[in-house]
Amino acid sequence: MSELKNRHDFVLLFDVQDGNPNGDPDAGNLPRIDPETGDGLVTDVSLKRKVRNFVLLTQEKKPGFDIFVKEKAVLNACIDAAYEGLGIDLKAKPKSGKDGKKREKEGRAQGSEVEDGRKWMCKTFFDVRTFGAVMSTGANAGQVRGPVQLTFARSVSPIVSQEHSITRMAVATEAEAEKQKGDNRTMGRKNTVPYGLYRAHGFVSPHLAKQTGFSSGDLDLLFKALLNMFELDRSAARGLMSMRKVIVFKHGSELGNAPAHALFDRVHVDRVQTEKPVRSFKDYKVKVDTAGMPKGVEVMDLAG
């Protein structure tokens, strides 16, 4: 895979219909919201989770495309595997290691061993070389600053969170059934957003990509994951979520040809009608202002 030589900035536009795009565990799993503006929020962690899930499903067992942060993963065990793969015995107490120093603590890497472990982790795990990771626990493989960063997603218009009563025609235990006196219906609550269009921004740094080994092929896979991450992550709680636009600004250099914010300001999302509530992507008009585009910047619309 070829080395990444161009800076990229991108805009994500995705929507939700009759679902909860990202519940807040500190607020009874209600849809996240900015209390001052009423704008809906989706965390960068939530978006990265969906990218990780897509890569895990589509690149299963392919060398170099494992996922470090995944369900039921024991992170320290993954770090231990790095040193096993490198043939470094962290329990040994050599007279002198690569750095000419005695091991300070048994079972923990030090000096150049940490750098070797970091490189192994970047080579093995897609999400480490993409988003970075803190791997200084356990055996210690250091820290990685990822070349790809995402912001929180914020809804284009304020959202309304609706609460619904739901019933379940069953009970969990016999004792509960006796308490209900033959009526096995139990009540529950569900919160949804009728409709919300969310906007997030992303950045890709070639300089950090060199440090982690993130390649142009990895970038292609990232954009594929962003385009399709909702297709493989369906949930009744999340309703209908769809990626509507992935607008990419490709720079002609590593440093970039324009500030990211100036490029993002060229992406305009406006209401078609303001007299009625929005309930569809068709209620918005998306336009990219390409007039007077800075020299060396290429615009790509990867979705619809």
Automatic annotation (TrEMBL):
Family matches, as InterPro entries: Cas7_Csh2/Csh2, CRISPR-assoc_prot_Cas7/Csd2
Region span, Disordered: 16-35, 92-114
Basic and acidic residues bias: start-end ranges: 92-108
Listed GO biological process terms: maintenance of CRISPR repeat elements
Official protein name in the record: CRISPR-associated protein, Csd2 family
High-level lineage: Bacteria, Pseudomonadati, Myxococcota, Myxococcia, Myxococcales
